[in-house]
Amino acid sequence: xxxxxxxxxxxxxxxxxxKKYDIRLVNMLVRFGDNEIKPGEMSIDEFYAKMARSPVxxxxxxxxxxxxxxxxxxxxxxxxxxxxxxxxxSGLSGTLHSAQMVQEMFQQPRLHIxxxxxxxxxxGIMVLEAARLAERGEDIEVVLNRIQEMKSRVxxxxxVQNLEYLISGxxxxxxxxxxAGVLDIKPVLCINDEGFIVPxxxxxxxxxxxxxxxxxxxxxxxxxxxxxxxxxHSAAIEDAMYLKESMEKxxxxxxxxxxxxxxxxxxxxxxxxxxxxxxx
Length: 280
Known about the structure:
Blueprint: E1 3-8, H1 15-20, E2 24-26, E3 29-32, E4 35-37, H2 44-53, E5 59-61, H3 65-76, E6 82-87, H4 95-106, E7 111-115, H5 120-135, H6 140-153, E8 154-159, H7 164-168, H8 174-183, E9 185-191, E10 197-204, H9 206-220, E11 228-233, H10 237-251, E12 255-260, H11 263-269, E13 274-279
Parallel strand pairs: 1-2, 1-6, 6-7, 11-12
Antiparallel strand pairs: 3-4, 3-5, 8-9, 8-13, 9-10, 11-13
């Protein structure tokens, strides 16, 4: 009985939170050439070290439909249980479409699939909020309404320090990337309301990029001291800690969740990326 929450491994929530709230995941996959990395097979540090020395860039693929069917099927078998799946933006991944296909197969009104329109900890703080509401015993309508509200309010702001990965993924042109590299320009990007990555601003140098994302948070954030905010990073824990301490001091934020950017998203942004997530 009750409500069970499902997401995918792009929510970048720390393992202890996933365990505490019994949040189930379906796993998008990463491979280097023909070598597929199974979930849990490689630590985050090992992944980024391999990424740095690999002659080929990693590629990603969405979860197998069979895995999605197994995860959702095992939960809806529990009589009376409502199942809420909150997945990475459909603008960035085909996972949501696969989950919707499974939903149609099951034809089960207790199965709810939501396009977060977010990624990484932007998705993660939505998943966490749903899990906390479920733990408190809230009705399914309360959970679904709150997630829809967050869908329009959560902001995802990030800066990529190595443009090679954005260039290879077609996010920016090689020419623009070369100019930015020479001038030490760091792009500040966001995920828009349609769930796509778009440019937001830019900064000259690494330290300026850190300050820029905090300035954006101050400009867009609403009642920041009362929020749970997220920070995710790819092998950049010092930057994450700087952002956390700055948020606490500057905005009075009480709860900051820090998570590693996992291999799936990390394959596209590379090491050195830092991201912040908050409600406007």
